[in-house]
Write a structure and sequence with these properties.
alpha+beta, Histone, subunit A, two-stranded antiparallel sheet
């Protein structure tokens, strides 16, 4: 059986939180509900999430991660055939382990519209450089934006979230 070198990852700095290590959780219940379960390796990392989440009153609660033996008892490995599959055409995350969810991105029926506000982009380029902008640029930028969004979706799913956030694009 292959073992993971770390128990979890810090939701702020993405550093490892090892087994039998002190970590911190937010006192706000929405940060601790199933599926979110934010964990931080230090008070500084916890403090970095407070303005993002706009908490009015919150504090970092100290916890201790389980031993590797405890974790393996509570979370037995899932065999490949036993893993649930996402319904066809959905973009639901399918858990494949504690840290590596697989996201099934829907490939059928995707709109291939321009995702850029053409007039705004042309005005920006003209104000910035005095140049004109070809209409063909919009298609290329829309394709790049789709790729960025796909990567962001995978990052959000890896963090156990169903909401795409600004931090998924960093």
């Amino acid at each position: 059986m292959e073992t993971s070198p770390a128990w979890a990852r810090c939701n702020s700095c993405k550093g490892d939180i090892d087994f039998e290590q002190t970590y911190y959780v937010c006192s706000v219940s929405t940060c601790n509900r199933k599926g979110t379960e934010l964990r931080f390796c230090s008070v500084e990392c916890w403090d970095a999430h407070v303005p993002v989440m706009r908490h009015r009153e919150a504090w970092a609660e100290e916890n201790r991660s389980p031993t590797q033996a405890q974790w393996e008892r509570e979370h037995p490995p899932v065999e490949e055939e036993d893993r649930p599959l996402a319904p066809a055409g959905s973009s639901a995350a399918v858990p494949s382990g504690p840290e590596t969810p697989i996201v099934c991105l829907n490939e059928t029926g995707l709109p291939h519209d321009i995702l850029i506000v053409v007039s705004k982009l042309k005005a920006y380029v003209r104000a910035r450089s005095g140049m004109n902008t070809s209409d063909a640029v919009m298609e290329v930028l829309s394709d790049r934006l789709r790729t960025l969004c796909d990567d962001g979706i995978r990052h959000a799913a890896a963090d156990g979230r169903k909401t795409l956030m600004d931090r998924d694009f960093k």
